[in-house]
Structures are given as structure tokens and as C-alpha cells.
């Protein structure tokens, strides 16, 4: 059971969307193109299409997240699907029901798709391996492993802002790479789209051991890391990192790795600034950058809905040979 | 079982087999004669020997019963996974006549009562001999010493803190010193818990890509370094259990070369699998300590071959199916390995990682020496623990052929070459392949 | 492969029929909507010939197809453009080929998501047998009889040409 075998059916169509790794460039481009159609829709008066009418989509969130869950919910509703939100906190899981039991109970209610967020790496893969043949699984983030829809909306944004030729782009991802599923997915996607240069920038404590296995160039200094880059993606720094003896303070992090207009001067003159959100102002970047002309952070949010609509509808459509 | 009721002489002749007994440097086609639970002769029929039972060992190898240093029988405390009854049977069908279980039972083996319970239950099941290890510290909590003398008297072959942390080095020093008072061997699991930091995979290229919390090599080597210093300080006889890194093997080799009373073993899965095998989040490969790099695997094989590791064990950890059904990090670690100890050992021989003679040594007199027990040999007068196996017999490991209660193994479905045909414990036939 | 007569002549005929229809029914000041892609090409010419003041609307019915789960997503979808309110308007809906009727069904569903027209008249450049739904055009450019293994296709936008081909 490898990534490819699980995600793609025998006709090369998307069945589950679990990780960027295991997919191919053609499929990624197809997702981006499909998202383009849905993006046009969000600007219309009639935003809803009947594509997934009658289908039931369950947001199965084992990790609390209002933002991601809301965008998936909105995406599903705009496809006219019925949406069920299930938040399983630590305590209810502890009270007895195994993950597998929860799954089986939901499947008995004839659910068509699970959107899963879980604190364990590999959780979405595990669930995808256990569901019935007609059910699809979308990974909304598993541990530190993968957040493929985030990566796709970031690629969609880059494509819209910089054009379809990723080969001439230099992209830097800055921040807590070690704990970031977003970064891992972004690196895979950028590499699959043949991006000119992919760089990761972080202090050593926030860089995974054997980071070279990820497929990006490693930098420990922000200025050299973003020199001449066309896109800077800032990652969110979680407060817990200070407790875990990974960083001395947010202040020092901001001094060294926080994005300011001054530091951005090292990048290409028309650099684009991105962030998966939510932003810690004054830590990852200051407000001047976050709200400035180079920032496309709000567009990312809008694109998130179109991309998720694309992925959901692609995963639910099964191609069979056309009848006459 | 093949014993004539009322006849306690039980005279058995094992004929036609190739006898390999590394303890006595024997490798020859010979018959073996047993009586009263002991070996009475090799090769020549003793005068007046009337055979009660003949065992045909044609095309088979006859060697001392195998000794497995790392077996969790899950009793007492975790009987939903397995029990002494089920795992004794698995042991016997795998040719294992003596197995050693760590003290992390529930309750912990820190009182003679638990140690005796385990030994007695094994005797009742009558399929294999269980030698418990006693707890090094009370409750394995790493704070107070346990009553090691009493544990030794109750049949413990040594003491160990199992995989529980020994954070306080002063306590560790004192525990080692106390153990050495009674000439007890301390069985160490080298793992620095803080460095391991709740990881579930080797901190390497695969864990980096999969975003799995990693356990660095240093978690083992830092602990080994600390342990070596304390071993030297205290003069205790020590054994390192289930080392996983090439670097740690080298450290142990150097200490052995310098004359330290140190032995070490390696577990079978680490000689076949590596971090690459968890690339699919296969929870059957979730083990602690984790599967390391391909280079480490090669270094471990070399250390087994050249004797730095004088024993090969299974690190048997049977689980119920639920324990492995979940996302990788939340599954319970461990492989059920009793059934595959010998067959995978033979595969090592087929892959030229070691000679047949070396393999049998690591499975018999090697571990016996570590335990300081008079098993693992076919000397005249020795206890008749015997393993007879056909090295050419092909079979497949599946849910039917696997005898342990735990089927959690990534080797499920593998073709095996070499299978036990008979096992004798104390001169009695406790298993035959029918 | 066969070509049909000058498509322009067929469209001229349609424009005349539409004019007569509008006059006869009193459905004044209709707006026009073409279905992507061929219907829009035809509609552009009709729109000009009928002097319709409102800009031409266009529909992409990909999201409304009933065979979505069978044929999968078509990645390139043009957003529908309806630059006028539909409520209480008379609408002329234009498509290139009327065959099973499913495209028109999808188009009707989509139009009604936008508003509630007073009436909808269907004008099809080509009509062929094989209806699977009870749908008919008010104005037909030409009726064509085809073999089961043939299909007809409009290419364009300039020049507009009708071709009959064997179904691959």
C-alpha cells in the first residue's frame, strides 16, 4: 500500500487526497485548472453549483481548527453537499471509542467523504486504507506530515501571481520547518511543479535532522535565504516552541527571522509574501508587510475555497467509459 | 506426548541427524541418546540402552534447545494480548526451550512472588522453561533498589530496569553496585528517554519526510556511554539488550576488547528491516527502539557475526489486533517474533551473514553463557533440551502456521526455509510437527 | 467527413423564424443566452441580426451536467456570464446541437438558479433524433438524420462550419 496506490485509482483519477507525495505533475496541474473554474464562481452572484448534491461530507476533526474546518464546510456547501461537522476531542477519544469504531459508525450512515484532521502523522492514510471503496478521504492535516490542500492553494496563488512557469521562480519557506506539515507539502508541490529553487530557512532547532531528505536547500540565515527570491512563504510560529527549549524568545526569533520591509529588500523587487495564517504579527512579520502591497495573504484564503471545491469534486467523480 | 505412563526413565534415541553443538565444537552425523531427562551419549549406543522412543532426525539438524533472551509473555498483567500458555506453545514450536522475560510485567517482577508465579505457570504449561529477570529498581521506577537477593533466589537470572527510564545516575550506580554484590548480571536497555523525546521512529531521512517524531541515534549511544562508564566504575557484569545502532555496537566492541565484562545481543527484526520499511506508515514496523538505517543494519549483522553480539533474540512482543490498528504514532510498538527466530536466523545463514555454526552458537551457548545457566549444550549429563529442525523445509508464515497469540509481524506472508520438527524439554517431547 | 451548406444561411433562416415567433407570441424585448461553446458562437450572430439591446449572456453548464460523476471534471470551465436580471424576462436560449436534451435540461436548471424568467424559447442550429428527455426547440435551423455511429460538430468561431464525423 504505497501513497500512489492509495490516492489514485486504476484510471489515474484522484480517489483520496492525502499527500502531495505520491501524486504527479499532471494531476497537480489538473487540480489547479479545476480550481480556476471554481474561483470564477466565487466572484458570481450564484456561488452554488449542484455538483455534489445528495452527497454527504463529514468533517472529522480530531484537532480543533475553526479556520480550516470552516473553509472545507463552505467549499462543500457551495458544491451543494450536505455537511456534518464532528469534533473529536482528546477526552471523547479517551472515553473509549477507537478511531476505527468512529469511522465504522459514520460509514453506516452512508457518508461519501471524510475530511480528516488529526494530530498523528499518517492518520489520513490509515483512514483511507480502511474506508469502503466508494468513500473518499481528504487530508486536512495530519501531525507534521502533510497538509496537501494548503499546499495546493499556495501553488494556485503563486501561479495566479507569477504565472504558470515555476521553473524561473525562487521560493523560500521560512519558519518552523521541523513541525510543519504545510512546509513538507509545499516543498513536494514546488518540486513536482519544477520550481527553479526551493529553499527552507530556519534556526537549527527548527530544522529537521536530515532536512536534505526533504528536497530543498537549507539556510539558517534569513537574509541569505531570501536573497533574490520571488516568493517568501512565512510559517506560523507556535507559542509552545519556546517551552520546548527550541527557541529562547519570540523577540529573538523576530529579530533574526521575522519579515520586515527592510529585510525584504534582499529579495527580488517584486517579491510576493505569503502566509498560511493565522499570522502572529510582530513575530513572523510586522504589520507593514502583512498588510502591504506584496502580501497576498487574504487572497490565499479565498483561493482556499476554490481549491478545496476542486479537490472534493475531483475525488468524488469517477471516470468510466463513456456510453454512446 | 510420547511418554509411556509410569515409566520415568524415558529413554529416547534421536537417530540419523546432523548434530551441531557449538559449545563442544561438534558438527557430525551422530545419534543422540537421552534418559532421565539428560543426555547420556552422543554417537555410541550405551550398553543396555533400551529405547522407549525413537525420533527420526533424518535430513535434520539436532542442536541444543534454543534460548531466547527477549520474550514478553504478557502474563501477568496483559493477558488480552497473550499468556504463558499460548506463548510457551509458540516457543516450543519454534525450538525455544528456555526463554527469558523482562520484569515489566504487571505487577512488576520486583518480588519473589511474581518471579515464582511466572516460573510455575511455565512449568504447568510444560512446553518451555521461563527464566524471569528481576526488577533492578522497585516498581521499575528508578528510585529505590529492589530486593535483588530475594529475586535471585526465586530464580531470576539477572536484574533489569526493562525499558523504563533510569534517570538518576546515582541510583543507577548504586543499583549496579548492589547487583554486583550477588554476582548478578544487569541487563541494560540503553535508551536516554529525554533524548528519545516520545519519538516513534529513527530520526533520519524517512522520519524527516514523513513528519514522524524522531528518536536520534544519540538516544542509544549517549545511554551506552553513560552505562559503560558506570560499568567500569562498579565492576558489575552487564549485558546490553537489543542494540540497534552501528555506533553503539562499536562502543561495546571497544569496551569488550579492553576486557570489560560486557555482553550484548541483537534482535532479529533489526537485521532485516530498516527505517525504509516505515515509509508507508506500516504500523507492523513500529518498534521501540526504532528500526535504524540500512548502514546500521549492516553493522549489526557484522557485530553478530564477529561475536560482539553473542546472542540473537526475538524481542518477542505479541499484541492484540487493535494495538496496531491506528495511525502509526498511536499504535503500540513491538513485533511478535518467537515464531520467526530460527527461520529468519537461517535466512541470515543463507544470505551469508553468518555460518550455521555461528548461528546456533548465538541461539544456544551464547545466550546460556549470558544467563549463566547450564543450558544450550549437548554435553554428556546436560539437561536434554533439544531442538530438531529440517533446514530444507519450506513453509509460509501465515495466520495458521503462526503459533503465537500475536500476529503482529511484518514478516507475515514471507516464505521461510527451515522448520522445527521436534522439540524436547528436560528429555520430554513437547512439540512435534505433524 | 461531410460538410453542410454554408452555416450562415442556416443562421439567417433561424433569425427570421425567431423574429416571427417573437412577433406572433408578443414576447417583446427578449434577452439572449448562448450555451458554451457552440451555442455562444451561433448566438452572437443571432444577437446581432435580431438587434437585441442587452449584451449576450453565456452559460457553461459543466457544473449542472447529470453525468458529472460518470465523465469526471472538465478542468477548463468558463464562468457563466449573465449581465442582466432574468426575473420576468423572456429569454431566447441558443445551442448548436440538440440531441438527447440533457444539455438543455442542465441549462434550464442553471438559468432558474439565477432567477425566474417569464418564458424561455429554445433555438437550436441543428436538431437530430435521439431525445432522452421531453424537450423540443421552438426554432430549428436544420433537422439532420444521422447514423448511430455518426455525430455532428460545429467548429469555429470563424468560420463557422458544420462537420459530420464518425464517433471515435
Strand pairing plus helix content of chain C: what structural class?
Answer: alpha/beta
Q: Describe the main β-sheet of chain C briefly.
A: 5 strands, parallel
N- and C-termini, Cα separation of chain A: 36 Å
Largest interface: A-B, 28 and 23 residues
Helix content of chain A: 25-40%
Give the overall form of chain A: globular
Number of strands of chain C: 8
How would you name the CATH homologous superfamily of the largest domain in chain A?
Aspartate/ornithine carbamoyltransferase
Structural class call of chain A reads alpha/beta
Oligomer: heterotrimer
Q: What would you say the CATH architecture of the largest domain in chain A is?
A: 3-Layer(aba) Sandwich
Order of helices and strands of chain A: HHEHEHHEHEHEHEEHEHHHEHH
Report mean pLDDT of chain C, rounded to a whole number. 90
Total number of helices of chain C: 4
In total, the number of strands of chain A is: 9
Strand order in the sheet with the most strands of chain A: 7-6-5-8-9
Strand order of the largest sheet of chain C: 3-2-4-5-6
Short description:
Chain A has helices at 3-7, 25-42, 66-78, 90-94, 99-107, 123-128, 148-162, 181-192, 222-225, 240-243, 250-257, 261-264, 287-290, 297-316, and strands at 56-61, 82-87, 113-118, 136-142, 170-174, 197-201, 217-219, 231-234, 272-274.
Task: Write the SSE topology.
The complex is a heterotrimer of chains A (324), B (434) and C (168).
Chain A: H1 3-7, H2 25-42, E1 56-61, H3 66-78, E2 82-87, H4 90-94, H5 99-107, E3 113-118, H6 123-128, E4 136-142, H7 148-162, E5 170-174, H8 181-192, E6 197-201, E7 217-219, H9 222-225, E8 231-234, H10 240-243, H11 250-257, H12 261-264, E9 272-274, H13 287-290, H14 297-316
Parallel strand pairs in A: 1-2, 1-3, 3-4, 5-6, 5-8, 6-7, 8-9
Helix pairs in contact in A: 2-7, 2-14, 3-14, 7-8, 7-14
Chain B: E1 12-15, E2 18-21, E3 26-29, E4 32-35, E5 38-42, E6 53-56, E7 61-64, E8 66-68, H1 84-93, E9 96-101, H2 112-125, E10 129-132, E11 134-135, H3 148-153, E12 158-160, H4 169-181, E13 185-188, H5 193-196, E14 201-202, H6 205-210, E15 214-215, H7 218-234, E16 238-240, H8 246-257, E17 262-267, H9 294-305, E18 311-313, H10 341-350, H11 356-363, H12 365-371, E19 386-396, E20 415-425, E21 428-432
Parallel strand pairs in B: 1-6, 2-7, 8-9, 9-10, 11-12, 12-13, 13-16, 14-15, 16-17, 17-18
Antiparallel strand pairs in B: 1-4, 2-3, 4-5, 7-19, 19-20, 20-21
Helix pairs in contact in B: 1-2, 4-7, 7-8, 8-9
Chain C: E1 2-3, H1 7-25, E2 31-35, H2 38-49, E3 57-59, H3 68-71, E4 90-98, H4 102-114, E5 119-128, E6 139-144, E7 150-155, E8 161-166
Parallel strand pairs in C: 2-3, 2-4, 4-5, 5-6
Antiparallel strand pairs in C: 1-8, 7-8
Amino acid at each position: 500500500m504505497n501513497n500512489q496506490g492509495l490516492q489514485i485509482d486504476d484510471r489515474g483519477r484522484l480517489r483520496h487526497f492525502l499527500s502531495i507525495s505520491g501524486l504527479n505533475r499532471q494531476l497537480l496541474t489538473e487540480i489547479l485548472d479545476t480550481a480556476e473554474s471554481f474561483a470564477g464562481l466565487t466572484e458570481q452572484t450564484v456561488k452554488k453549483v449542484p455538483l455534489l448534491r445528495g452527497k454527504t461530507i463529514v468533517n472529522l476533526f480530531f484537532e480543533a481548527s475553526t479556520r480550516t474546518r470552516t473553509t472545507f464546510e463552505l467549499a462543500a456547501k457551495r458544491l451543494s453537499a450536505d455537511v456534518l461537522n464532528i469534533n473529536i476531542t482528546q477526552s471523547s477519544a479517551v472515553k473509549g471509542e477507537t478511531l476505527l469504531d468512529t469511522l465504522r459508525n459514520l460509514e453506516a450512515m452512508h457518508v461519501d467523504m471524510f475530511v480528516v484532521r488529526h494530530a498523528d502523522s499518517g492518520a489520513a492514510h490509515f483512514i483511507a486504507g480502511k474506508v469502503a471503496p466508494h468513500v473518499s478521504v481528504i487530508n486536512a492535516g495530519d501531525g507534521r506530515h502533510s497538509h496537501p490542500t494548503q499546499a495546493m492553494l499556495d501553488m494556485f496563488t503563486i501561479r495566479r501571481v507569477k504565472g504558470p512557469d515555476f521553473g524561473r521562480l525562487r521560493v523560500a519557506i521560512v519558519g518552523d520547518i521541523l513541525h510543519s506539515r504545510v512546509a513538507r507539502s509545499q516543498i513536494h508541490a514546488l518540486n513536482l511543479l519544477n520550481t527553479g529553487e526551493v529553499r527552507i530557512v530556519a534556526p537549527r532547532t527548527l530544522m529537521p535532522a536530515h532536512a536534505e531528505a526533504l528536497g530543498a536547500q537549507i539556510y539558517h540565515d534569513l537574509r541569505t535565504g531570501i536573497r533574490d527570491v520571488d516568493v517568501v512563504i512565512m510559517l506560523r510560529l507556535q507559542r509552545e516552541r519556546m517551552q520546548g527549549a527550541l527557541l529562547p524568545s519570540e523577540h529573538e526569533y523576530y529579530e533574526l527571522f521575522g519579515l520586515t520591509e527592510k529585510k525584504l529588500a534582499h529579495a527580488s523587487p517584486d517579491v510576493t509574501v505569503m502566509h498560511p495564517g493565522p499570522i502572529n504579527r510582530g513575530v513572523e512579520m510586522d504589520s507593514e508587510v502583512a498588510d502591504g502591497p506584496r502580501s497576498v495573504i487574504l487572497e490565499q484564503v479565498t483561493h482556499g475555497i476554490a481549491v478545496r471545491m476542486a479537490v472534493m469534486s475531483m475525488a468524488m467523480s469517477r471516470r468510466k467509459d463513456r456510453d454512446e | 506426548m510420547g511418554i509411556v505412563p509410569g515409566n520415568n526413565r524415558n529413554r529416547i534415541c534421536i537417530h540419523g541427524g546432523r548434530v551441531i553443538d557449538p559449545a563442544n565444537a561438534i558438527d557430525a552425523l551422530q545419534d543422540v541418546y537421552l534418559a532421565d531427562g539428560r543426555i547420556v551419549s552422543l554417537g555410541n549406543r550405551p550398553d543396555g540402552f533400551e529405547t522407549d522412543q525413537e525420533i527420526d532426525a533424518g535430513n535434520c539438524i539436532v542442536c541444543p534447545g534454543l534460548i531466547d533472551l527477549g520474550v514478553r509473555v504478557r502474563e501477568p498483567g496483559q493477558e488480552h494480548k497473550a499468556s504463558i500458555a499460548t506463548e510457551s506453545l509458540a516457543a516450543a514450536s519454534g525450538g525455544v526451550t528456555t526463554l527469558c522475560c523482562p520484569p515489566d510485567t504487571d505487577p512488576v517482577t520486583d518480588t519473589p512472588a511474581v518471579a515464582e508465579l511466572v516460573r510455575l505457570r511455565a512449568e504447568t504449561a510444560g512446553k518451555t522453561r521461563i527464566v524471569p529477570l528481576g526488577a533492578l529498581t522497585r516498581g521499575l521506577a528508578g528510585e529505590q533498589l529492589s530486593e535483588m537477593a530475594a529475586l535471585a533466589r526465586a530464580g531470576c537470572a539477572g536484574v533489569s530496569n526493562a525499558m523504563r527510564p533510569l534517570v538518576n545516575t546515582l541510583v543507577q550506580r548504586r543499583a549496579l553496585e548492589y547487583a554486583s554484590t550477588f554476582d548478578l548480571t544487569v541487563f541494560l536497555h540503553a535508551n536516554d528517554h529525554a533524548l528519545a523525546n516520545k519519538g516513534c521512529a529513527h530520526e533520519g531521512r524517512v522520519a524527516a519526510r514523513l513528519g514522524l517524531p524522531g528518536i536520534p541515534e544519540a538516544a542509544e549511544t549517549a545511554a551506552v556511554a553513560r552505562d559503560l562508564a558506570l560499568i567500569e566504575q562498579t565492576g558489575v557484569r552487564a549485558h546490553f539488550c537489543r542494540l540497534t545502532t552501528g555506533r553503539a555496537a562499536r562502543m561495546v566492541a571497544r569496551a569488550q576488547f579492553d576486557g570489560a565484562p560486557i555482553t550484548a545481543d541483537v534482535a532479529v527484526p533489526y537485521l532485516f528491516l530498516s527505517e525504509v520499511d516505515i515509509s508507508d506508515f506500516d504500523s507492523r514496523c513500529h518498534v521501540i527502539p526504532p528500526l535504524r538505517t540500512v548502514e546500521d543494519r549492516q553493522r549489526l549483522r557484522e557485530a553478530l557475526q564477529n561475536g560482539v553480539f553473542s546472542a540473537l533474540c526475538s524481542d518477542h512482543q505479541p499484541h492484540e489486533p487493535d494495538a496496531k490498528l491506528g495511525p502509526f504514532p498511536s499504535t503500540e510498538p513491538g513485533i511478535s517474533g518467537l515464531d520467526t527466530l530460527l527461520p529468519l536466523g537461517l535466512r541470515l545463514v543463507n544470505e551469508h551473514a553468518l555460518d550455521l555454526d555461528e548461528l546456533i552458537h548465538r541461539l544456544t551457548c551464547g545466550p546460556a553463557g549470558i544467563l549463566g545457566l547450564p543450558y544450550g549444550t549437548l554435553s554428556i549429563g546436560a539437561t536434554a533440551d533439544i531442538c530438531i529442525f529440517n533446514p530444507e523445509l519450506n513453509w509460509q508464515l501465515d495466520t495458521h502456521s503462526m503459533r503465537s497469540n500475536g500476529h503482529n509481524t511484518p514478516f507475515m506472508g514471507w516464505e521461510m526455509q527451515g522448520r522445527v520438527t521436534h522439540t524436547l524439554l528436560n528429555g520430554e517431547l513437547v512439540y512435534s510437527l505433524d | 467527413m461531410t460538410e453542410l451548406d454554408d452555416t450562415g444561411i442556416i443562421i439567417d433562416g433561424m433569425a427570421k423564424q425567431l423574429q416571427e415567433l417573437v412577433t406572433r407570441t408578443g414576447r417583446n424585448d427578449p434577452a439572449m443566452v448562448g450555451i458554451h461553446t457552440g451555442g455562444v458562437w451561433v448566438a452572437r450572430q443571432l444577437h446581432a441580426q435580431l438587434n437585441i439591446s442587452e449584451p449576450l449572456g453565456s452559460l457553461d453548464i459543466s457544473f449542472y451536467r447529470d453525468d458529472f460523476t460518470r465523465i469526471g471534471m472538465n478542468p477548463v470551465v468558463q464562468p457563466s456570464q449573465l449581465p442582466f436580471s432574468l426575473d420576468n424576462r423572456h429569454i431566447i436560449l441558443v445551442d448548436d446541437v440538440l440531441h438527447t436534451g440533457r444539455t438543455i435540461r442542465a441549462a434550464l436548471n442553471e438559468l432558474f438558479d439565477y432567477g425566474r424568467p417569464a418564458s424561455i424559447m429554445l433555438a437550436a442550429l441543428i436538431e437530430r433524433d435521439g431525445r432522452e428527455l421531453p424537450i423540443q426547440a421552438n426554432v430549428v435551423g436544420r433537422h439532420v438524420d444521422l447514423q448511430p455511429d455518426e455525430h455532428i460538430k460545429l467548429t469555429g468561431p470563424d468560420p463557422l462550419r458544420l462537420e459530420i464525423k464518425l464517433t471515435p
